[in-house]
Amino acid sequence: VGGGVRYAELARRVHAHGLALPNMASLPHISVAGSVATGTHGSGVANGPLASAVREVELVTADGTSATIARGDARFDGAVTSLGALGVVTALTLDLVPAFEVEQHLFTELPLEGLDFEAVAGAAYSVSLFTDWRDPGFRQVWLKRRTDDPLPAFPWAVPAKVALHPVPGMPAGNCTEQFGVPGPWHERLPHFRPEFTPSSGAELQSEYLLPRTHALAALHAVQEIRAAVAPVLQICEVRTVAADAQWLSPSHGRDTVALHFTWIEDTAAVLPAVRRVEAALEPFDPRPHWGKVFTTPAAALRGRYPRLADFRALARELDPAGKFANAFVAGLLDG
Predict the structure, then answer these.
(1) N or C end of the chain, less CB within 10 A?
(2) Which fold has domain 101-288?
C-alpha cells in the first residue's frame, strides 16, 4: 500500500476481499506510514502496535535511491518505527488475516479501588478504559469482542444504557456502533467513524507507555495528582499493547499499558499538567508516544531504548548527512 493511504480507505478495500488488518487505532483517519513510524497502536493484550503488521518497507533514501527492507533483514526492526529519519516511505507491505466480526459492549462506573487490571484488560480482543480524573475510577469501559471468541463476563461495572462518546459532551453518533451489534472489524475496532471528526477535534494529546506490570501503580500515581490534571483534561484513555521488536517502538520488548491524555487546546495551561504526569510516572520507566506532546529530555529518552545505538547506525548508513533529521531527531540520536 502507498505510505499516504489512510487506514479507513485501506480497511474498506481489504474487507471487500474478505480480509482484515489484525487491529486498528482508535481513529481510522490516520495514514499508514505516519502511524507505524511513530508507534501508533490500538488496544488488546495480544495485539502489538500497528507496526507489527508491516512485513516490508519501501523508501527513498537521502541519495535518491530506493531501498526495500523486509522482515528477516537485520535492519528491519529499525525500519518501520523510524520517526521518518531514514527516508521517504513510499510503500509498505502488510500482513492480513481473514475478515472477522466484532461486537462493542460499553460499561460505566468501573472503580479503581480493588481493580483487577489484568482481568479487565484481557476481557476482550480490545479493551479501553476512560476517565476524566474528576473522580476516582473509570467513567467508561469499551469492550470489543470478536464474535468468534466467547462472550466475556464483566461483573465489575454497569452496562451502558445509552450510546456514549468517550469525551463528555460530544455526540455519540460520531462513534462506531455499540450495544453488542455485530459488524465488520473495521467498523468496530476504531472508536470513531471515518466520516466524522474524531475525539473532540480541538485538543492536545499526550501518551505514556510503560510495562503492564506497573499498570495499577501508575494509575494510582495519576490519581494522586488528579487535582492538577482534571482541570485541563478532556479524557484519559487506558489501553494495552503487546510487546514488539521495533527498536524505537514505545512498546519495544515489553507488554505495555498506555495512558493517553486528551487535553484542552491550550498549550500554556496544559504543559504544567504534562510535567506533573511525567513526574508521577517517572518511577515506571515511561516512554512517551513520539507523535504527541511530552517534555521528557532527549537524554532521558536515550536511556529507555536499549537498541537506540543500532538505530543511530542505521540512520547514518541510509542518511549520513542527516537530511531527514530535524532538530528533535538530531538531538535524540547525536546527544
Answers:
(1) C
(2) Alpha-Beta Plaits (3.30.70)
Integer Cα distance of 8 and 29 in angstroms:
6
For residue 252, pLDDT beyond 90:
yes
Per-residue pLDDT band at 199 (split at 50, 70, 90): confident
What is the spatial order of strands in the sheet that 88-94 belongs to?
Answer: 66-70, 54-60, 88-94
CA-CA distance, 74 to 124, in Å (whole number)? Answer: 34
Segment 196-209 mean pLDDT? 89
Place of cell 490516520: 30
User: In angstroms, what CA-CA distances link 65 with 244, 289, 291, 319?
Assistant: 29, 30, 27, 11
Contact, 95 vs 70, CB < 8 A? no
**In 3-state terms, what secondary structure has residue 282?**
helix
- The answer to whether residues 103 and 181 touch, using CB atoms and an 8 Å cutoff, is yes
Domain boundaries, the chain: 7-98, 101-288
- What is the spatial distance between Cα 99 and Cα 183, in angstroms, rounded to a whole number? 11
| Separation of alpha carbons 5 and 31, rounded Å | 5
pLDDT of residue 202: 87
Sequential DSSP letters for 157-175:
SEEPSS---SSTTS-GGGB
- β-bridge mates for residue 141, sequence order: 107, 129
Q: What does CATH list as the number for 7-98?
A: 3.30.465.10
Q: Which of 323, 26, 214, 215 lies closest to 7 in space, CA to CA?
A: 26
Q: Give the tens place of pLDDT for each residue, 276-288.
A: 999 999 999 999 9
Helix extents (H) in the chain: 7-16, 32-37, 76-79, 117-121, 215-224, 226-229, 267-281, 298-302, 308-318, 327-334
User: Which triple of cell numbers denotes residue 95?
Assistant: 500482513
The answer for residues whose C-beta is within 8 angstroms of residue 162's C-beta and 6 or more apart is 172
User: In 284-307, which positions are buried (b, 16+ CB within 10 angstroms) versus exposed (e)?
Assistant: bebbbbbebbbebeeeebeebbeb
